[in-house]
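Pasting as-is:
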Amino acid sequence: MKNIAKRIIVVMTVITGLFTSCADYLDIVPDGIATIDNAFKTRYQAEKYLFTCYSYMPKQGTITSNPGLTAGEDFFCATSSISENGSLGAVGSNIQYGNQTADSPYADAWRGYNALNSPNASLYQGISDCNIFLENIALVPDIDEDERQRWIGEVAFLKAYYHFWLVRQYGPIYIKDKNQSVGVSIEESKVYRNTLDECFDYIIGLLDEVINNENIPDYITNEVEELGRITKGIAMSVKADVMVTRASPLFNGNTDQAGIIDNRGIAIFNPEKSDEEKLQRWIEATEAFKEAIDFLEALGHTLYVFDGNLDISDETKTKLSIRGSFTENWNDEIIWANPNCWVGGSGTISAYNWPRGLVDGSTSGTYTARMNIPLNFVHKFYSKNGVPIDEDVTYNYTGRYDLRVATSREKYYIRQGYTTAGLNFDREPRFYADMVFDGNVWFGSSFLDEENPLYAKMKLSDGAGSIYLNGHNLTGYSAKKLNHYLSVVAGTSASAKPYAWPVMRMADLYLLYAEALNEAGGAKEDVLEYVDRVRGRAGLNGVEWSWSIYSRNPEKPLTQEGRREIIQRERTIELAFEGKGYWDLRRWKTAYDVLNQPITGWYVYGRTEETYYVPVTIIQPLFNMKDYFWPISTTEMQKNENLVQNYGY
């Protein structure tokens, strides 16, 4: 059995070079057909085109490519103080503010506008290049057939994933299975949107082809050159994700979109679904998840547990297990990480969550905690007893904003003797592992002595306070989770420990499986088994025991509806700040209720505990019913009258 935990960090420098080199190659594959034959004359040239197909992969860990990072409930960003790659900033924030329009849609993956994904942003262009590759790969003479078939499988996966990304945003799209010929007439070029069912069937069919392709490896053996390329396990987990999305309320018999009918008279959202049909989709999703989980576990994939050689407390080990599950490169939990999206250093989302001045004297202008966690989201994390704080019979919920002094009992979480809000006490380990707040202990940045810890001082005149214009936190909370504990920022310099952004990890897969099992009518014990696995790594007891002892609603885990709420809350906490929550809220059809809550935080301009720990409203976000699906740009609509616009635009 291969132990996939042992990875060499420098590996991805090689792979990143391969992928980024594609940008130059794109220049020699223009729209003109004359150059295509040259592109497939040798294996070397064809491999460049393979990496060109990979280069369109959305950078899920950047705020300009993944609107899920800043359009949801876990982050609030002031658009004037966030910039990435020097332009556009947090496109998701403009969606959060209610600024989405059809004239110039934000994060427009259809056309590639108002979103940055160097070198490419239009996923339809990416699909076109995938089609060119598949149409021409047979021409390459100096390649063995096994490798040719492997490349075909990889590009088929990319084609499926790009279609899936578009479907998540727009609902029904037009399936681009083949590129149109040069001689097609203008009228023939005016495509229709396929129905939603057709889109999902097409994507799942492509993924099945990849899974059944004997030349797609189970795991990567040539780690120095190939980590991040598609494996059978990646294809199986993405297929399961696609199927649970198809089964979710937004896409499964959603009658809200029933009026969207094209000029052929076709209701493209397929709103008519019987209860039996809806249930069958959940059942099929459970089967896909079980196959993926069994396959991946047989390869050695498991939940990450910190095993570093440090003499530290169990509390800190648990925190490092939680953080490391995401930031420890290529650990056993990671199913798929994007080698075209490295984070952890200056100018990445990690830096935007590092408090400027965290270490005394550090004034780096790129590590400035300009991403903000709203108080509403802070409330989402459980109490130390593993239940919501407003349900916990032992938690002082009414006094959560009162001041309290940390004692030796809290010293691994909050600086002993420090005064902070009651809201920051008696919370679960993920609360302290994932977030940084005033008085919070930050284990790392070369401060590894638990008896003399580094801790955040975030009131106005403090080192990590809001004295820096356009370079500070506006709510009092940032995402520590996104920084590896060995990253160091001191003075004006930094030594970051970067990592490839995890797209799918085992905890995500377990919780999706639990959700599908619950909706398919699975037994309570089977459903909660996978939730409890994730909770166990987070230092919590099982769901049923925790609710029976500590919750004001001890019967909640005993009903399907109660388990649904618990699983959704568990995903919200476990996958916080990973860009997943926004897509979950949409597919659950709960976004309208959740994302219209006022964004609040502490009064970060306060200089004392009494003036700082005052909840204030920062903005009122706006999520309209029309925001469940992206608008097709007005330009596209004007060019093609066969397209029908989404609701509200």
